Amino acid sequence: MALLWFVALANARGTAQWMLRPWRSAWGYGFWLIGISALLTTAVFLMQARGFSAIDFAVRFVAACVILVLNATLFIRKNPAPRPLEKGHLALWLIINLFLVMNL
Q: Which among 22, 36, 38, 76 could bridge 65 via Cys, Cβ 3.0 to 4.6 Å?
Protein backbone atom coordinates (compact mmCIF):
# COMPACT_ATOMS: atom_id res chain seq x y z
CA MET A 1 0.00 0.00 0.00
CA ALA A 2 2.90 2.38 0.72
CA LEU A 3 4.27 1.86 -2.79
CA LEU A 4 0.85 2.63 -4.25
CA TRP A 5 0.72 5.86 -2.21
CA PHE A 6 4.17 6.87 -3.48
CA VAL A 7 3.29 6.14 -7.12
CA ALA A 8 0.01 8.04 -6.80
CA LEU A 9 1.71 11.01 -5.11
CA ALA A 10 4.53 11.17 -7.65
CA ASN A 11 2.14 11.05 -10.61
CA ALA A 12 -0.24 13.51 -9.00
CA ARG A 13 2.67 15.88 -8.44
CA GLY A 14 3.74 15.58 -12.07
CA THR A 15 0.18 16.21 -13.21
CA ALA A 16 -0.13 19.23 -10.91
CA GLN A 17 3.17 20.60 -12.25
CA TRP A 18 1.82 20.28 -15.77
CA MET A 19 -1.45 22.00 -14.79
CA LEU A 20 0.33 24.85 -12.96
CA ARG A 21 3.03 25.40 -15.60
CA PRO A 22 1.84 28.96 -16.52
CA TRP A 23 2.06 30.04 -12.87
CA ARG A 24 5.45 28.49 -12.11
CA SER A 25 7.07 31.82 -11.22
CA ALA A 26 4.10 33.07 -9.17
CA TRP A 27 4.23 33.47 -5.42
CA GLY A 28 2.76 30.46 -3.62
CA TYR A 29 3.37 28.04 -6.51
CA GLY A 30 4.75 25.40 -4.12
CA PHE A 31 1.71 25.59 -1.86
CA TRP A 32 -0.62 25.23 -4.83
CA LEU A 33 1.48 22.33 -6.10
CA ILE A 34 1.27 20.49 -2.78
CA GLY A 35 -2.46 21.19 -2.41
CA ILE A 36 -3.44 20.07 -5.90
CA SER A 37 -1.18 17.00 -5.67
CA ALA A 38 -2.77 16.01 -2.37
CA LEU A 39 -6.26 16.61 -3.79
CA LEU A 40 -5.58 14.44 -6.85
CA THR A 41 -4.12 11.66 -4.72
CA THR A 42 -7.04 11.78 -2.32
CA ALA A 43 -9.47 11.64 -5.22
CA VAL A 44 -7.87 8.46 -6.56
CA PHE A 45 -8.05 6.66 -3.24
CA LEU A 46 -11.59 7.81 -2.53
CA MET A 47 -12.74 6.56 -5.94
CA GLN A 48 -11.85 3.09 -4.72
CA ALA A 49 -13.86 3.41 -1.52
CA ARG A 50 -17.52 2.44 -1.69
CA GLY A 51 -18.64 4.66 1.17
CA PHE A 52 -16.64 7.52 2.55
CA SER A 53 -17.22 10.56 4.67
CA ALA A 54 -15.80 14.05 4.91
CA ILE A 55 -13.55 12.86 7.73
CA ASP A 56 -12.05 10.18 5.45
CA PHE A 57 -11.38 12.84 2.84
CA ALA A 58 -9.82 15.22 5.37
CA VAL A 59 -7.58 12.55 6.91
CA ARG A 60 -6.29 11.34 3.54
CA PHE A 61 -5.81 14.91 2.29
CA VAL A 62 -3.80 15.90 5.38
CA ALA A 63 -1.75 12.69 5.18
CA ALA A 64 -0.94 13.37 1.51
CA CYS A 65 0.05 16.98 2.33
CA VAL A 66 2.33 15.83 5.14
CA ILE A 67 4.01 13.23 2.93
CA LEU A 68 4.52 15.77 0.14
CA VAL A 69 5.97 18.36 2.52
CA LEU A 70 8.34 15.84 4.09
CA ASN A 71 9.50 14.61 0.67
CA ALA A 72 9.73 18.05 -0.93
CA THR A 73 13.53 18.01 -0.91
CA LEU A 74 13.55 14.77 -2.90
CA PHE A 75 11.49 16.33 -5.69
CA ILE A 76 13.41 19.60 -6.06
CA ARG A 77 15.73 19.77 -9.05
CA LYS A 78 19.27 20.42 -7.86
CA ASN A 79 20.85 21.65 -11.09
CA PRO A 80 19.39 24.39 -13.30
CA ALA A 81 18.22 23.00 -16.60
CA PRO A 82 15.34 23.79 -18.90
CA ARG A 83 12.40 21.56 -18.17
CA PRO A 84 10.84 19.78 -21.13
CA LEU A 85 7.07 19.59 -21.33
CA GLU A 86 6.21 16.25 -19.81
CA LYS A 87 2.84 14.78 -20.63
CA GLY A 88 3.63 11.29 -19.38
CA HIS A 89 2.37 12.03 -15.87
CA LEU A 90 -0.97 13.22 -17.19
CA ALA A 91 -1.34 10.15 -19.39
CA LEU A 92 -0.50 7.81 -16.53
CA TRP A 93 -2.87 9.72 -14.23
CA LEU A 94 -5.72 9.29 -16.74
CA ILE A 95 -4.94 5.57 -17.16
CA ILE A 96 -5.02 5.03 -13.38
CA ASN A 97 -8.35 6.84 -13.10
CA LEU A 98 -9.88 4.92 -16.02
CA PHE A 99 -8.71 1.64 -14.50
CA LEU A 100 -10.27 2.51 -11.14
CA VAL A 101 -13.55 3.67 -12.69
CA MET A 102 -13.85 0.53 -14.83
CA ASN A 103 -13.29 -1.71 -11.81
CA LEU A 104 -15.99 -0.10 -9.67
A: 38
